[in-house]
Structure formats: structure tokens, C-alpha cells
Amino acid sequence: MAPVQAAEALRAGGLVAFPTETVYGLGADARSDLAVAGIFEAKGRPSDNPLIVHIADRCQLDGLITASSPLADKLMDLFWPGPLTLVLPAKEGALSRLVTAGLPTVAVRMPDHPLALGLIRQADCPIAAPSANRSGRPSPTTAGHVLEDLAGRIDGIVDGGATGVGLESTVVELEGDRLVRILRPGGITAEALQAALPHAVIVTDDQMGEAAAPRSPGMKYAHYAPQGELTLVGGEPSSVATAIQAAVDDSRACGISTGVLAFDERAARYVADLVIGMGSETKLEDAAHSLYAALRQFDAAGIERIWAESPAKAGIGAALLNRMVKASGGRHETV
Question: Is a pLDDT exceeding 80 seen at residue 220?
């Protein structure tokens, strides 16, 4: 679908998938209850899970939020356009309540992708856009992935090729002039936020209890899961490889198809029905970029059980580990 046609479909209340620098989003006019309800229906998404609103210009914020703050403005100056979502106080009546899930706040970001920015400007409306996949499935990083999940459920796709970052945006909530809570780790790391804001206090997700209702996308529900059972294994690399191979051998002896998602340093050690290398453990950006595509490869091959090497929780590794834990449904072993 051409961007001009996509913009027309959005203005008419339709659903359009489009590329961002993170993953493909499923967009609808964020002001329309009917259009936004279509997102939840197409995805099978729980209705208490809020949506991110995408804008193309800072001036669009004036119609969406009641107030900004010096800290929020600083983050926008530094990281917009880019994979950073800010949770800000929502203006009453400016958006569909389905977007905010009844919360007094709205999650907003400005994507760093020319097709996304052009589409938002042509549509001339704020675009609510979660990832363009069936709820719970691996997020789409190509137009083909969108078709696998949503063909016949949406009005069209703007094909921009493979996305860059490969993981969803970082979502932050601000308090006062110093505190930054990371509600969902993503393409902007805690280290990058701290370096940019040396006097700020950065609080990560593992320092907070889980909220009764999610304050942003990606906080509560299991996400990103392949069809086969995924187990993460962490620990000393050699011990991890030994434990994974033993588990694979046991399953294969029972006639169960097996898969391994491993770093390139050890991928050749494994014998399974499908072994996928996700890049070097010293360059986790590559693993982040390839994760969702790899999970879909296991699905395409009909793999029933998958084991994955757990990444180090530093830099982009925090976001990568977050997505892998959710994809595994919490099956995370240490050896």
C-alpha cells in the first residue's frame, strides 16, 4: 500500500501497518473509539493494555497532554525522533479512552523512520500503534511477518523493508525534575539515559513491583512467544551449552522436535533440529535485531521445544532479556 493510500485509510477510520525504526506498528486514528477498537479486535489484545500514540511533530503534543516538564522536554530534545516513549498527563477528551485504558496518562513517541513520519503527517492525526502482530506473538520486523498474523484483518501494509532496532521502544514515566522510571526497556538503554541525564535517578523495572494494571504497553502480559515452548538458560557459558544440549538430547529421544537459539560463539556446538545463531554475545544489538525473526523461524519449522542462551543484562541486553523472558512465559533457568 502506498503511503498516500495508507493516510487516506487512516483518516477514514481504517487500520494500517507501517514500519518504524523498532518494529512494524498497527496504526489507527487515536481520537476515534471505533478505529482504536479495531486495533484490539485485529490483535486480540487485552483492553486494559494501553497503546502508544505516535506523532510526527512536537507541536502535536499540545493537543494531547495537559502539561510537559523540563525533564520531559530534555528527553524529547535528546531522543526524539527515536525509540523513546514518554508517559505524560493526558488531556481529557483528546484521545479515545481505549488508547489510555482509562488511565489519566498517555504514552507518546516520535518514531525515527521517514515512512512513519510521512504517514503521520499525511494522515494529519495522532496514530495509536501497538506492534502489528496477533497479541502474544513475536513482534513483526518485516511486512511479511505482519501478513502472517494479520492478513484479512487490516486494511493494508506500508512495506518499508526490515526494521532497524528490532525491539520495541523504551517506555519511561517521569516524577519531579529528577526521577525516570523505565516501565519497559528498549532501544534507549538505562545507560544512555543516565549518560544524557547525569543528575537524574534512573529506576529500572526490576527495582519496582508489578502494578495491578499496566501503566504502559509490555508491562503485564506474556508477549512475543513462539508456538513452541521456549526456555531460557543462563550461567557460565560452557555450563549453559552442556545443559542445553542435554535437554535437547532428552527431548529428541522422545521424538520431540528441538531448536536452539545461541550466540555465534557457541552455535556450532549444538545438535538440534534447528540451531539459529543470533549474533555475537559481545554485540547484543545484533541479537536484539534478529530475535523476533528467529522466533518466527522456529514456528515455520514446526519446532516444539526451544532453548535459548540468556544474554547479559547490560545495555540493550536488558531489553533483549526482557523480551526473551516474556516470550518464554517465565521459564528461565540458571545453571
Answer: no
